[in-house]
Amino acid sequence: MSADGSRAHVVQALAYITLGLFAGALIAELSRPGASAPPAPGTPGPAVAGPPAPAADAGIAKMRGVVSHSNPAEMQQLLALGYFVGTVDPEADKSGVLAHDKRRSWPGLNFYHSELGRSALLVDMDGSEVYRWELGKEPDLGTWKHAELSPNGDLTVLVRDKRVFRIDKHSKLQWVREMRAHHDLWIHDNGEIYVLVRNPRRMPHVHPSAAVLDDGIQVLSAVGEPLRRVSLSDLLERSRYRFLRRSIAHIVADAAGGDLDLMHSNHIEVFDGSQAHRGPLYARGNMLVSMRNNHSIAILSGSDHEFLWLWGPSNLTFQHHPVLLDNGNVLVFSNGTTKSRVYEVNPPSNTIVWQYGHPDFFSKTRGSNQRLPNGNTLITESDIGHVLEVTRAGETVWHFANPDVDGELRHAIWRMTRHAREDLPFLSARLPPDGPPEPPKR
């Protein structure tokens, strides 16, 4: 937005939303008691791909004592996180492309959808609609949490805690798979679909009676048939990072009032092997995941699912969307509690090599980032429905505000992704939305 005061007002408008968030002080307790300032570029992260240091373990032990059954507000922090449709914006009359430096921005087509809508769009760099997918209420498959665009124009859509389905470039339904999917999915180059799932499960070692959400990865075939499933909760439990799981055995189950969300995974990426020459960490089939409530991102082995690398405690706060870059680094959106930042971290050295932040930059519950071919970074400030393209120096060269506005409520954008037009061949041979024209009558 144009005025700092207005941006501050927008951020303050988020305060009316009741969400399950941990206190910011817990992050300091996690690994580095007393630390509060964000790490500077070149700073190694304390959580490395090896056994946890005693200091980190001690920090977790202190954190475990914070939540008690006598504090209902603290218990609410563990319940499954809800999301709101948008944010009150005093500048709601300003929509579409608000700034565009044609010389320094990277040209392409921008794919996005409004949070909890039933349609998705491709818009050009001027914000003009190029293509639209839309599914009405017949059949009523629910509102969209995430949509993934394939080069042939198919969309694979996730409806939170309900199902995954696919529509083609004409918005015709191809298949539906009922499942408790959430947040994100990844389409591997072999056609398999990796979906984040969660189901209530009794885990006596975690809590004697309360249901805990068991985060997992469900793999589907290209036509939506279930193939295999792995429990992220179990993988973390048997790993050297088990200490990151909060101890909740003392919570009174009746007082909890819902499923306890200890991990809250929110992103998955499957490596295609293009970076495998850098070492085993980047092998084809390895998986990059984000565990929001553990303030951690991790790389898992694609063969035995062991944790190969984990980073984040004391550096990340409620993060989203870690993505592997062509240089072997990982880009990640750290939401924070009052300000957000985007970090580029080098996994082998656990060193932050680049970061972006701004006094008014904040998305409390969502966010995404994409490194563009010219070195710029596309950042979705999800909660307020804004998207920025910034240079390595942090200068904004493109700014978009979601035009989906109801009064002063601007709808959130879960994620915007920029595509080169040549990477979307369906556009060059696209047909009318209703399919091929009927042959002329004789």
List the helices and strands and how they pair.
Elements: H1 4-13, H2 25-31, H3 54-64, H4 72-76, E1 86-88, E2 96-100, E3 109-112, E4 119-123, E5 129-134, E6 146-149, E7 155-159, E8 163-167, E9 173-178, E10 181-187, E11 193-202, E12 211-220, E13 226-231, H5 232-237, H6 253-256, E14 265-270, E15 287-291, E16 296-300, E17 307-311, E18 320-324, E19 330-334, E20 341-346, E21 351-357, E22 368-371, E23 377-381, E24 386-390, E25 396-401, E26 405-406, E27 409-411, E28 417-419
Helix pairs in contact: 2-3
Structure description:
- This protein is mainly beta and 442 residues long.
- The chain has a single domain, classed as Neuraminidase (6 Propeller), CATH 2.120.10.30.
- It has six helices and 28 strands.
- The chain has helices spanning 4-13, 25-31, 54-64, 72-76, 232-237, 253-256, and strands at 86-88, 96-100, 109-112, 119-123, 129-134, 146-149, 155-159, 163-167, 173-178, 181-187, 193-202, 211-220, 226-231, 265-270, 287-291, 296-300, 307-311, 320-324, 330-334, 341-346, 351-357, 368-371, 377-381, 386-390, 396-401, 405-406, 409-411, 417-419.
- The strands form seven sheets. A five-stranded antiparallel sheet has the order 2-25-24-23-22, with no helix packed on it.
- Helix 2 (25-31) packs antiparallel against helix 3 (54-64).
- The protein is globular, with a radius of gyration of 22 Å.
- The termini are far apart.
- Mean pLDDT is 82; it is low at 1-71 and 434-442.
